[in-house]
Design brief:
The protein has about 800 residues and is α/β, with parallel strands linked by helices. The chain has 21 helices and 22 strands. It has four domains: about 210 residues, Response regulator (Rossmann fold); about 190 residues, Rossmann fold (3-Layer(aba) Sandwich), CATH 3.40.50.2300; about 50 residues, no CATH class; about 260 residues, Rhopdopsin 7-helix transmembrane proteins (Up-down Bundle).
């Protein structure tokens, strides 16, 4: 990978800066060795060679020129770093890991390791937070088939269900060493088939981008006929947009819009100038430059045995290379190497200063670092803290990690194979969990297939408000059907798992996606029904007052005096109040009106019915008293009538007092009588007491009706029994029909039924008892005299 040559240059540049800086190790010069070994066996060989005599492979044999290694920086891949740690941990040599750090279970080995990149656990948590940020719940996973890849997959699959994320597919990719090229193509063809799904977010975990480049290049080979689909590739930190020389002409537009967790980096001033001004080919110590140059520029240096097609002219310009082959700006991996070199230098400087203080005086021109042991450096590395040339603080935590975090990068590619990395966010492990990930959505450029709209990656489309999700059987939990909310319930957000009811004072709107306040309703004077009942009540009240006035004016006439005129006055007054108490039922219910309406209704009606009963008894006693020798004569009189009225009314008054004392009526609201409204009403308090009041009135009415019915045919022109019979028949009919009507009504219509029953029953008493008498008094005065009444009575008796 030619792009990785920048790692070498970052090391060289950092050492060059330190050696030129007289503030750090002023009397010492540091140097380095670079070992390039591929594969685990060669990694062990190269690591053991560090502890051998120069140019010999005899570990721990000290003879001649020796390698006194103070620290080791390596390697790019976590597997290589782990192989190195197995040996370096034995010798307690500080090891700086600038790629993704491996998981080291041995605490002894971990003491010797310093991670320039945070643990993958932070990155895995960041991937989940990224998916949740964009609400991508249907995600494909492609991971390399090794221990780290398996751990990565297991971590995600364990966390996904907790956050409602599902894996659309999971595919492992084996390395080139395990599979042949045809097997790799077969695996990639399988993955390409999964790209037909609606999982637009694909997480890829690999060491490098080689497999992804081959995957996106398949349509060019003719191995697949399906047109490439735009996807959002979510890459981990170890992946860089690199290319092999043979991939120079491969289109990179399929990667456009990808999101990548990259190792944090900042532009180091002077680094680009160092690359541009360095005469790479004249530096003999650089054993990588010729191979890099030939691969990057597709040329060859002259060799006696071969004639190359194109000879390297040594005038090639690094800036002309595409970013996939080589970048002029410092990458995250190079930045980690740069900081690692400075960490070692500052630790050595601290160790040198400490030893000078212990000596008290300086014994030589410089401190001989060759005599220092690498294990001594750990004490100072753990405490090292400085600001690098960019101004960022470098220090390690108790676990030996440099918690810079990760940058979130949006890859923007161009047709000329160049690209731009746009930093659109940050993953900061030191921040609180809810603020660990920051994303700037407006800065993201998506793949052209999304038409610059926000890409979705869900198994099924989002359920709009007014619907709820129901899981599809035998499918992942992210796959569901959208079901409309039941009547009376709403859902006010997308993808809700259930609907809910509105508060009692609100109701669902037509779309069932929000609650709107219910209309406050009650029987008021401002609506037609209330106005009509009020007019009807006042009309009958006026009519009652008119009848009372007529009776008072003609109080000396026989027809008024018949059957106790005082009872007639009391009955008319009580009927007048009966009509007026109906007005208490109209208007907004309040505490006073609620108590007064039912108590007044019970008492006044009891007085009226008691008067009717007293009149009925008076008729019977009066007839019985006319018989010779009758003992009933002593019972006939005002005292009997008054006692009847008082005793019957007193019983009702006691019932009403018990009602008020135990569970009185109170203002209430009927929230369920209507869908879009709630009705203010008077709660009866105790329904039993309410029916006791009605029952007692019915009891009095039935007695009156029975007695009047039996006495209806008694002789005498003053006999009111027939009129009382009709009035009680009307009264009982009204209140008997009231009960089922009352129970079947709701809302303000219950109040209307009560008012109508009061008016109808009161009007029945008024009209049946008093209207015939008023007719005689006003229009037939010749019948309203004692002689006429006596003559008619005699005729009936004969």
């Amino acid at each position: 990978m030619t792009k990785n040559y920048q790692h070498v240059l970052a090391l060289v540049y950092a050492v060059k800066e330190i050696n030129e800086n007289h503030q750090i190790l002023p009397n010492a010069t540091i140097g380095f060795h670079i070992y390039d070994r591929y594969g685990s066996s060669w990694t062990y060989h190269a690591t053991m060679k560090l502890f051998s005599t120069q140019n010999e492979f005899i570990p721990n044999y000290k003879c001649g020129i020796q390698n006194n290694i103070m620290s080791v920086i390596g390697a790019l891949y976590p597997e290589t770093s782990l192989h190195m740690a197995n040996i370096l941990g034995i010798y307690k040599v500080p090891q700086f890991m600038y790629g993704c750090a491996p998981v080291i279970n041995d605490n002894v080995e971990s003491i010797s390791s310093y991670q320039m990149v945070p643990s993958e656990d932070y990155q895995n948590a960041g991937i989940v937070k990224l998916l949740l940020h964009f609400k991508w719940t249907w995600v494909g996973i492609i991971a390399k088939d090794n221990e780290n890849g398996q751990r990565f997959v297991q971590t995600l699959l364990a966390v996904f269900p907790i956050h409602g994320i599902c894996a659309a597919f999971l595919e492992s990719v084996k390395t080139v060493h395990v599979l042949g090229m045809f097997d790799i193509l077969d695996s990639l063809l399988k993955i390409y088939g999964f790209m037909k799904t609606n999982a637009n977010a694909l997480v890829i975990y690999e060491d490098h981008i080689l497999y992804l480049r081959i995957l996106l290049y398949l349509p060019e080979t003719g191995l697949v006929t399906m047109a490439p689909q735009g996807k959002v590739w979510i890459m981990t930190a170890q992946m860089e947009l690199t290319a092999l020389p043979l991939q120079k002409s491969w289109d990179i537009q399929g990667i456009h819009g990808a999101l990548s967790f990259t190792i944090h980096s900042s532009e180091v001033l002077g680094f680009q100038n160092f690359i541009q001004t360095r005469n790479h080919l004249l530096i003999k110590e650089d054993g990588f430059i010729k191979e890099f140059w030939e691969q990057a520029f597709t040329c060859a240096f002259p060799k006696p045995s071969k004639k190359p097609v194109e000879i390297c002219t040594m005038e090639e310009n690094l800036e002309s290379l595409s970013g996939a082959l080589f970048e002029m700006g410092m990458t995250g991996h190079s930045y980690s190497i740069y900081n690692a070199v400075y960490a070692v230098a500052h630790a050595l400087h601290a160790m040198q200063s400490s030893q000078l203080k212990q000596r008290g005086t300086m014994k030589g021109a410089r401190l001989d670092l060759q005599n220092q042991q690498s294990w001594q450096l750990h004490h100072f590395l753990k405490r090292v803290s400085f600001n690098n040339s960019v101004g960022e603080k470098i220090c390690f935590n108790q676990n030996g990690e440099l918690l810079f975090g990760f940058d979130i990068v949006n890859w923007i590619t161009f047709p000329n194979q160049s690209f731009h990395r746009e930093k659109i966010g940050r993953l900061d492990p030191r921040a609180p969990p809810d603020k660990m990930l920051t994303i700037h959505d407006d800065a993201i450029s998506w793949h052209s297939s999304f038409n610059q709209t926000f890409p979705l990656s869900v198994c099924t489309d989002s359920c709009d408000p007014g619907n709820f999700r129901r899981k599809q059987e035998q499918k992942a939990s992210c796959c569901y059907d959208c079901i409309p909310c039941p009547e009376g319930e709403i859902s006010n957000q997308n993808d809700m798992d259930d609907c809910f009811r509105c508060p009692e004072d609100q109701h669902p709107n037509n779309h069932q996606d929000s609650c709107v306040p219910k209309i406050v309703n009650y029987l008021s004077y401002e609506e037609p029904l209330g106005i009509s009942l009020a007019i009807l009540t006042l009309s009958f009240s006026f009519l009652t007052a008119l009848v009372l006035g007529i009776f008072i004016k003609y109080h000396n006439t026989p027809i008024v005096k018949a059957n106790n005129e005082n009872l007639s006055y009391i009955l008319l007054v009580s009927l007048h109040f009966c009509f007026l108490c109906a007005l208490l039922f109209i208007g907004k219910p309040r505490k006073v009106t609620c108590r007064l309406r039912h108590i007044a209704f019970g008492l006044v009606f009891s007085v009226a019915v008691s008067c009717v009963l007293a009149k009925t008894i008076t008729v019977v006693l009066a007839f019985m008293a006319t018989k010779p020798g009758s003992r009933m004569r002593k019972w006939v009189g005002k005292s009997m009538a008054n006692a009847t009225v008082l005793s019957c009314s007193f019983i009702q008054a006691c019932v009403c007092n018990v009602w008020l004392a135990t569970s009185p009526p109170f203002p209430d609201a009927d929230m369920h009588s209507g869908v879009e409204e709630f009705v203010l009403e008077c709660n009866k308090g105790s329904a039993n007491m309410f029916y006791c009041v009605l029952g007692y009135m019915g009891f009095l009415a039935i007695i009156s009706f029975t007695v009047a019915f039996l006495a209806r045919k008694l002789p005498g022109s003053f006999n009111e029994a027939k009129f009382i019979t009709f009035s009680m028949l009307v009264f009982c009919s009204v209140w008997l029909s009231f009960i089922p009507t009352y129970l079947s009504s709701n809302g303000k219509y219950i109040v209307a039924v009560e008012i109508f029953s009061i008016i109808a029953s009161s009007a029945g008493l008024l009209c049946c008892i008093f209207i015939p008498k008023c007719y005689i008094v006003l229009f037939c005065p010749e019948l309203n005299n004692r002689e006429q009444l006596m003559r008619r009575t005699s005729e009936k008796q004969n």
